[in-house]
Amino acid sequence: MARKKTVSESKTSTRLLEGKHRGTEGRTYLKNPSLSIASTVNHLAQGNDIFNIEYSVSYTSLYSDKFGTFTGNYYQFQLTWNEIFGAIAPTLANGEKEKSLIEPLNFLITKAYEREYGKKEGFTNFCILKESFHTILIQMRALGLINEANEKRKFLEDDQYWKLTKKGDELMLNVRSIRKPL
Q1: Each residue of 33-90: pLDDT tens digit?
Q2: Does any domain span residue 28?
Q3: What percent of the chain has pLDDT over 90?
Q4: Which in 31, 40, 125, 158 has the greatest CB count within 10 A?
Q5: CB neighbours of 33 closer than 8 A, spacing ≥ 6?
Q6: Contact at 8 Å (CB) between 168 and 144?
Q7: In-domain check, residue 34
């Protein structure tokens, strides 16, 4: 004999069918994130909004024979989402390995540092931290600018491939195109 559902169980079933799930802190999470991302993109940081990108840097002392090379603490630099996307978008135009995106980001950090502080002798190896890198990938996915490119994966290859979406390609052309002087 089937037991009768309580009112609470019926509401829970309805929420699950609608794709909603209530977390322990009272926030509503979507079971299928793609259901809501289109409506929340406008509320995500993007364009000229600032992101504090975290990086480490190595410093070689002028007296390197005595002190050697030191890897510095972790630092932050403020960059816009358009600057970040503009750095990695050309690499993603035809699909590329995730690891290949680190180099243009490290170059962006290096150039931003030099713009702000000038080229400092001994400062080398500006490296984005993994957490910032992963945040960037997640943000670009959430904004609908990149997608996984599984068709390019090779047998037994661990690295994920990414490619631009149509929206990402349009933004790349907007951000990276050179305009006529006014």
Answers
A1: 554 555 678 899 999 999 999 998 887 766 655 555 566 678 899 999 999 999 999 9
A2: no
A3: 51
A4: 125
A5: none
A6: yes
A7: no
The CA distance from 60 to 10, in Å, is 65
- For residue 101, give its domain range: 42-152+159-175
pLDDT digits (tens, 9 = 90+) for 117-171: 888 777 788 999 999 999 999 999 999 999 998 765 565 567 789 999 999 999 9
The pTM (predicted TM-score) of the whole model is 0.72
CATH number of the CATH domain containing 114 = 1.10.10.10
Number of domains in the chain: 1
Q: What number of other Cβ atoms are within 10 A of residue 166's Cβ?
A: 10
Q: Which of 141, 170, 136, 146 is nearest to 96 (CA)?
A: 146
CA 49 – CA 46 distance, rounded (Å): 5
How many residues belong to the chain? 182
Structural domain includes residue 128: yes
Round to whole Å and give the CA distance between 79 and 139: 14
Q: Sign of dihedral through CA atoms 85, 87, 93, 98?
A: negative
Beta bridge partners of 29: 21
Burial of 2 (0-12, 13-18, 19+ CB in 10 A): exposed
Question: Among the residues of 78-165, which ranges form H helices?
Answer: 81-92, 102-117, 130-142
In the chain, what is the straight-line distance between the N-terminal and C-terminal CA atoms, in Å? 79
Both tokens of 175, joined, read: 């951000």
